[in-house]
Every structure is written in C-alpha cells, then in structure tokens.
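Issue: ligand-bound run for iron/sulfur cluster - logging full I/O for the record.

Environment: standard queue, default settings, no custom constraints.

Inputs:
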Amino acid sequence: NNLSEGSQMELYWDALQKSWIWEELHRARNYRPAFEYGLFPGLAFSALERYLLRGKLPLTLKHGKPDHKSTDIASTHAPIKYPKPDGQVSFDVPTSLYRSNTNHEHDQPVHLKLRDPRIPELVNLPKFAGPEARYCPARVYEYVSDEKLGLKLQINAQNCLHCKACDIKDPTQNIEWTVPEGGGGPGYTIM
Ligand code: SF4
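Outputs:
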C-alpha cells in the first residue's frame, strides 16, 4: 500500500545520506559550479578542492542557471558534424536501444506529456532547432513531415529510457515526465 511504499522511500533516503555515495557527492559538489567563473579559475579551484581542501570548504558554490536556461538560440551556432558510430565503442541509436531492452506495455497511458502541445513547432524547432530530437538518447522525440505544419513533433514514448533529460533540459519546461507503469522501462542485462 501507499503508506509502506512511502516508508520504504524514507528509509532509502536515510540510507543514501549515510552511505559513501553521499560523502563522495558532497566532496565533489564544488567542481562543476567553479567553472561558472571561467576555465582557468575553475581548473585552479578544482585543483585546490582536490588536493588541499578535499571538500571541506565551508560553502557550496551555486550553479549559475538551471540546465533548461543554458540552451542558446540555434542560429548563433554552426551545426556540429558528429563522426559516424564505429560499432566498436560508439553505436547508433537503434542498436543502443535494442541493447537497452526497454519496454512499456502498449496500452499504458503515455507518460511523457506536453504542457502546451503547440510549443515544439512554435518555439523549440524554429528557435532551438528541436533540441529534444538531439539530446534524447532513445530518439523518443522525432520531427516528422506534416502536411499542415511542415514538421511536427512525434513522441515515441514506448522507447523511453527514463533518463529524465527531457524534463530537465527542455528550454521552455514544456515537457512533463510522469511516472510510467511499474515494470516498464530499460532492462539492461549486463549491468
Ligand atoms: S526521459 Fe530520457 S529517454 Fe525518456 S524521453 Fe526523456 S530524454 Fe528520452
């Protein structure tokens, strides 16, 4: 029941805070935000943290802005040409997806929702070159041809790997990742 599930989650949180994971995360908390002050200050501060302070600095640096505010307008950048996957250490999306064994019951309610269904074609595509079709590791978001709109966002929710990148990274925070039915999602067999 809900009560016992809630209690179990509290136990998990408590156990996490007492574990080595928490201690390591605490020690490393200032590395990334230090680079908000530039590459060299970031490197110098990280070296200080690593070799002298060892996470004991009595303050926690803040990240400059949330991830979803960090996406620039696409027209201010040149497109990046990525090398083709070599099939040895890098793989194409269909192969990686196949290996993830991800699966959702076909008749379960869609767990990825758009707060405003017009935003992808009105904002994300023209302004940001459709970032959801780029950062999603499972190609859940695809811009496909549409007679009326030219290109229209299609959401292949059954491929989702539950990484939650879309919920965090969408520039207008228009994507809502809701909890899917239990038992669905990736099923890596060699981890
Ligand atoms: S949670 Fe991750 S895998 Fe799922 S749709 Fe969002 S970005 Fe793609």
